[in-house]
Amino acid sequence: MFKGCSLGERPFFAGLLRPVFKQIRHVLLHFLFLTSFSKPILYFCRLFLIFIFMTLDAFISSLSQAAPPGELNEPLQALWWDGKGNWEQAHTVAQDINTSTGSWIHAYLHRKEGDRSNAAYWYARAGKNMPHNTLDEEWQEIVAALL
């Protein structure tokens, strides 16, 4: 990305600006999640900013809405519904995701339900072992991996 920098290196100023960009991103996303836009151009700007700047904090903040942001893909929608406490809706969405990510979410949901044998099956399909962390920690891990 930067001329003369090897893979993994960044100029000294990149580290200095990271907290500034993180704060700007945080403020923008909170504003966008709390504001309804009626004009199409603003809607597409909102989509773009959410796609570029979605963070775990912004995702958690979106749980205060009645429905998931339309920009979320199916795996994040499933986790959003679970974050809202609607296990059934989360499971319905997760069942239609035929990828290893969908299997991971499905496994997490069955672990949360208490069905460890079914969860073990889905963890195996996802190529993962049954985790030993808390359900909240796993939820955050999956969301962070998908953002």
Distance between the termini: 22 Å
**Uncertain stretches of 5 or more adjacent residues:** 1-15
Proportion of beta-strand residues: under 5%
Order of helices and strands: HHHHHHHH
Describe it for me?
This protein is an all-alpha fold. Helices cover 67% and strands 0% of the residues. The chain has eight helices and no strands. The protein has helices at residues 12-34, 40-53, 56-61, 74-83, 87-95, 100-113, 116-126, 135-146. The model is unreliable at 1-15 (pLDDT under 50).
In short:
The protein has 147 residues and is an all-alpha fold.
Topology of this protein?
Layout: H1 12-34, H2 40-53, H3 56-61, H4 74-83, H5 87-95, H6 100-113, H7 116-126, H8 135-146
Helix pairs in contact: 1-2, 4-5, 4-6, 4-8, 5-6, 6-7, 6-8
Descriptive key words:
single chain; 147 residues; mainly alpha; 8 helices; 0% strand
